[in-house]
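Example 259, ligand manganese (II) ion.
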Amino acid sequence: MALDEYKRKRDFTKSPEPAGKTTRKSPPGRTPRFFCVQKHLASHLHYDLRLEHNGVLLSWAVPKGPALDPATKRLAMHVEDHPIEYGEFEGVIPEGYGAGIVMLWDRGTWTPEMDDVDAALEKGDLKFTLDGYKLKGSWVLVRTKGGAKWSSGGADRSWLLIKHRDEWSGELDIAEFAPLSVKSEGDFADILAKDDPDVWRSNRPAKGGDTGKLFERIIAQAVKMRTERSEGKELSEGSSRSSRASASSGTKRPSAKKR
Ligand code: MN
């Protein structure tokens, strides 16, 4: 069964992640079907790309996230299939496998650019078109030379995620430009605060031991990311304001008057 590994790794009495009861037939051939990217602040920040196929979500963990620049190849580790319901999941995994905060960073549909997806996966060359809020246009997942064959599930499951050159490619750093949730519109700190206001207020993890230590780091990271983002915003707002000010003569800003 496709979800065996997913279920084996998790204790659903302790994790809010969906156990995965739904199966549905995925459309055949070049028909749009569900995709999402979950930004996952765990022991390391990464982005999980999930593509619906054969009733499950095929999944790759992309440490640096997707890049819109075709010259930037991003490592994508093929991981276990996830259930369809996982595609809407956002929340806090308090302990165990994947402990941390999950944000629904993008979602929409993906369309294979070939008729036989299984053959493309086996070959290690999956071309597809995304129509999400943030990611669009043509992409490819290509298995690296040393990467294990699709069906073998072997040790080295490394692939590369690459944007094809089209109207949606470019140099914009999409992860930095659009860092928030497409579900709640919040950041990691918001998701954490909503899930457990007490933990958020105290900034102290509920549990001690290794899990507590990990969560201490994750909470600190969520706070740091928010702070950096608000500082970055002020800087860029400031610079665009001053460039606008210098371009217009009618501004009331004192710094502009001096020029
Ligand atoms: Mn993950």
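Summary: The radius of gyration is 21 Å.
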